[in-house]
Each structure stands twice: as structure tokens, then as C-alpha cells.
Amino acid sequence: MAGVGCPFGDIGCQRTYSTTSAQFRTVVGMNDDHLNVCASAEWGAFLAETIFPTVLDGVELGDDLLEIGSGPGLTTDLLKTRVAQLTAVELDPTLAASLATRLDGANVEVLNADATDLPLPTDRFSAAVSFTMLHHVPTVERQDRIFSELARVVAPGGTVVLNDSLGSDALRDFHHDDVYNPIDPSTLEARLALAGFADTNITVNEFAFWVHARV
After folding, report:
1. Mean of the per-residue pLDDT values for the chain?
2. Rounded Cα gap, residues 125 and 88, in angstroms
3. Which of 44, 107, 148, 207 could bridge 74 with an S-S bond, Cβ 3.0-4.6 Å?
4. pLDDT tens-digit profile of 92-135?
């Protein structure tokens, strides 16, 4: 299991693959190794023990949270224990259907939808989060549309949390046959301001960045 040297905004250091994600192998745009890691117990533990305590430190999520890019749902599993109601948006229909079935009866609504055009009302959510997903959005323009949609659906005063890895050759290699469009965090303050955010706080370490932005 990777330690603190892991690029915890992503999974390039994780090499213990789970066989439990075989059901997801029809997913387009993510290679098998990558998807296996996203569904592994090892990655789930790393999320719980390292990423969540760091990235969500001091964040008030409120009682009606939006997650975009839920994937196999390991982040969703952790988030649903922190809020009264969680809406998880996933673009891939196979992943969305599997997650909806697995979490049937929980405090989670799973939507198969595009985060650039959310079928959700304005000012609904108390907060929104995205973990290690934005580098899978193929263009800067579509990333910016996601930012604008998050600013629209989160109520005034709410916080949006964005976490992702820094770009690297190693992660680009790991994403072979994937979409890989990493964000330069030095561009985010201006991009998020244009999307409608204020009080943006961006933290960057050697491997990753995370953002707390107030609507």
C-alpha cells in the first residue's frame, strides 16, 4: 500500500489490483488497470485514511451534498456517511447503474448525467465535491462548464471542493487509452472566478491540489 509519497490526487502508485471490478470493464475511456484500482479495497482505504481527512479538513458539507464523477462509488460510500442526502452524478451508464443498484435504499440518489449540463435545480445543494475526476474531462472548455454548473446548483454560501492530481509523465503513462487532461492549478483562481466563485482557496503539494471555493 502506498504511503505519503503517493500522488494522492490519483492512483498511479497503486499497483494492487482488485478483481471485483470485472463487471465494469465495458466502461469507455478508462483502461482496465485504472478502473480496477478505482474499485479496489486498497484505494478505498487510501481515500478514507489520507485523501478525505486532508481534502475535507474544515469543510462544512451541510445536509444535501452533490458529488460529480462517482465512478465505482468508493468516494460515494464515504460521503454518504457524512450527510443526510447525497446525489451522485456519473457519466458512464454502466457505472451509474451498478452504483444505483448497490446503494438502493441508502441516502443516495445516483444520476446518469453529464456534469457539464446537470439536470438539477439552481441553488439546491449545500455543497459539492469532485475527487480525482477532472483530469478525465477532455477539454478545458468542458472543465469550465462543469465549474459553472457547480456554481449554479450550489446555494449561495455553499462550498465546492475539487481535488485532483498534478500532471506528470508517470500518470500520463498510467492513463494509456484513457482521457488524460490534467489541470494546471495556477489557472484555477481565474477560471473559478469566471464561473461565479469567490473566496477560492487552492492548496498544492508535490503530487496533487485541492480547492475550497465559496459560491
Report:
1. 86
2. 12
3. 44
4. 999 999 999 999 999 999 999 999 999 999 999 999 999 999 99
Pairing of strands 208-214, 154-165: antiparallel
For the record, the C-alpha cell of 152 comes out as: 449554479
The single-letter code of the amino acid at 75 is T
**Burial (CB count within 10 angstroms: exposed 0-12, middle 13-18, buried 19+), residue 49:** exposed
| Other CB atoms within 10 A of residue 44 CB | 18
- In CATH terms, 20-214 corresponds, of 3.40.50.2000, 3.40.50.1010, 3.10.129.10, 3.40.50.150, to 3.40.50.150
Q: How far is CA 76 from CA 47, 48, 83, 141, in A?
A: 11, 11, 11, 26
Number of C-beta neighbours around residue 3 at 10 A: 9
pLDDT for residue 175 is more than 70 = yes
77-99 pLDDT, tens digit each? 999 999 999 999 999 999 999 99
- Complete edge-to-edge strand list for the sheet that includes strand 198-204: 108-112, 85-90, 64-68, 125-131, 154-165, 208-214, 198-204
Per this entry, what is the length of the chain?
Answer: 215
Three-class DSSP labels, 77-138:
HHHCCCCCEEEEEECCHHHHHHHHHHCCCCCEEEEECCCCCCCCCCCCEEEEEEECCHHHCC
The answer, yes or no, to whether residue 22 has pLDDT greater than 50, is no
